[in-house]
Amino acid sequence: MAYSGKFKPKNPEKYLGDVTNIVYRSLWEKYVMKYCDNSSDVKEWGSEEIVIPYLYEVDRKYHRYFMDFVIVYKTGVTKLIEVKPFKETQLPKMKGRRTKRMLTESFTYVKNQNKWKAASEYAKDRGWKFEIWTEKELTAMGLMPKSTKPLKPFRKRSK
């Protein structure tokens, strides 16, 4: 199930864009927004406020990459953050896969790699950092529960 909606910050002065139009496209993005809004370590933050051009190697055309987050910490460190499922950060497994699905996952992987290379260079040019936060990082940081999957009801086994 996809979660999306509008986020209303408790600390709108920290937001780097239009506070009336903050949209999350996943529950994980909503967790990051809550973290940015509530953390005393975060000076400023924005969601999809930075657009980075990147060359997609498959069609050899330039596209626009809307960064999930830019976070400016009170320490002076600025980070560009991409929130992504861990499986999309890994090379797709090819063995025994159906062709259409394999192609789709492969193109997604290449597109992500192209985006992340451009984001990394963009951040480096400005003295910033680029990071990918998956469910593993979000859980380790305490931003989300260990599991976001609904629990299945307990069923007593009959003998």
Summarize the structure.
With 159 residues, the chain is of the alpha+beta class. The protein has helices at 27-38, 99-125, 135-140, and strands spanning 5-6, 23-24, 42-47, 51-56, 61-66, 69-73, 78-83, 129-133.
Major beta sheet, strand line-up? 3-6-7-8
Helix-strand pattern: EEHEEEEEHEH
Measured distance between first and last alpha carbons: 35 Å
Share of residues in strands: 15-25%
Structural domain tally: 1
Q: Kindly identify the CATH topology.
A: Trna Endonuclease, Chain: A, domain 1
Mean pLDDT metric: 90
CATH architecture: 3-Layer(aba) Sandwich
Please specify the SSE layout and strand pairing.
Elements: E1 5-6, E2 23-24, H1 27-38, E3 42-47, E4 51-56, E5 61-66, E6 69-73, E7 78-83, H2 99-125, E8 129-133, H3 135-140
Structure report:
- This protein is of the alpha+beta class.
- It has a single domain (5-140), classed as Trna Endonuclease, Chain: A, domain 1 (3-Layer(aba) Sandwich), CATH 3.40.1350.
- Helices cover 28% and strands 24% of the residues.
- The protein has a four-stranded mixed sheet. Strands 1-2 form a two-stranded antiparallel ribbon. Strands 4-5 form a two-stranded antiparallel ribbon.
- The longest helix is centred in the last third of the chain and has 27 residues, at 99-125.
Keywords:
single chain; 159 residues; alpha+beta; Trna Endonuclease, Chain: A, domain 1; 4-stranded mixed beta sheet; two-stranded antiparallel ribbon; 8 strands; disordered C terminus
